[in-house]
Amino acid sequence: MVEQSLHYDSVFHALADETRRDILMQLNNGEKTITEIAKKYSMSFAAVAKHLNVLEAAALIFKKKQGRVQIISANPKTVCEVTEYLKQYQVLWDKRFNNLEEMLKENQ
Amino acid sequence: MNETIITHSGATLTLERVINAPKDKVWEAYASADLFAKWFSTDGWETRVKHFDFTSGGYTLFAMKCVDESQEMFGQESWNKSEYSSVNPKDNFTYLDSFSDEEGNPVEGMPSTDITVTLEEIDDTTKITSISTFGSEDSLKQALAMGMEEGIKQTFNKLASIIE
Predict the structure, then answer these.
(1) H-helix or E-strand spanning residue A71
(2) What parts of chain B have a pLDDT lower than 50?
(3) Which of B83, B92, B139, B144 could pair with B59 in a Cys bridge, judged by C-beta atoms 3.0 to 4.6 Å apart?
(4) Are B18 and B127 spatial neighbours (Cβ–Cβ below 8 Å)?
């Protein structure tokens, strides 16, 4: 249990950073090499690699080796779990605000 | 219907929503106990207001109760206390949101949240921005889990299976 909740902490930590969220967005369109990912940012290759390590530790991405090149892909399972988590909260508030809007419409 | 946008960063959670109604009306929906109870209730959960003082230094005490017999949470009640540190009519208010008992005593071990709600009128519509600041990322997660417990048991179970 401890291990799992640590994993969950690391997921939120990983997602708290804008660059790392952006990297995940890039991976939505399919796997990429580190070089391809790093192209978009002005930071050093090493800095991007560090972000990728954080994402990997949170099980948000997979790394695999193809010869000398590392291929990075998103881990849809973790991404879905986190998205679901926030989505339910969003759904709840969306309903409340829809109620509010409907109620004010009737009042007019 | 407009979209409700939710973003989070560290221990801060932001909700944004544009309501197709003028700011005066939206404010009234927050400031009137009856109207508030009406729009705050969702999916078989009823909001019952016990104390309502929407002024700086005042507080509101209300319960959300599951009244849908088909839900597993049927009959369960969750009390909530909002203590207003500042209320600037029609523009914004800031409050401490906590889980409490029926008498308004805080429930130990549950997170309290500082929330600032701002209303902005944009061409006859009103943009609501609600910024919640949690003591830590842990309390943000806990509060999100509780938000789900209000009505979405299935997901709550799923969450539990992730954490446990």
Answers:
(1) strand A69-74
(2) 147-164
(3) B83
(4) yes
Q: Which residues of B fall within a CB distance of 8 Å from A90?
A: 4, 6
Interface check for A106 against chain B (CB to CB < 8 A): the answer is: no
Q: What's the rounded Cα separation, in Å, for the pair B135 and B112?
A: 8
Query: pLDDT by residue (tens digit) across B50-61?
Result: 999 999 999 999
> Closest approach of chain B CAs to the CA of A100, in angstroms?
5
Contacts of A92 in chain B (CB under 8 A): 42, 147-148, 150-152
Amino acid letter, residue B73:
M
**Contact residues on chain A for B1, CB-CB shorter than 8 A:** 98, 101
Task: Categorize the per-residue pLDDT at A2 as very low, low, confident or very high, splitting at 50, 70 and 90.
Answer: very low
Q: Which helix (H) or strand (E) holds B97?
A: strand B92-100
Rounded to whole angstroms, the Cα distance separating B144 from B91 reads: 26
Tokens of residue A36, six digits: 């391809």
**Are the CB atoms for B136 and B119 separated by under 8 Å?**
no
Residues in Cβ contact with A68 at an 8 Å cutoff, skipping those fewer than 6 apart: none
- pLDDT attached to residue A83: 63
Examine the predicted complex and report whether its ipTM is higher than 0.90. Answer: no
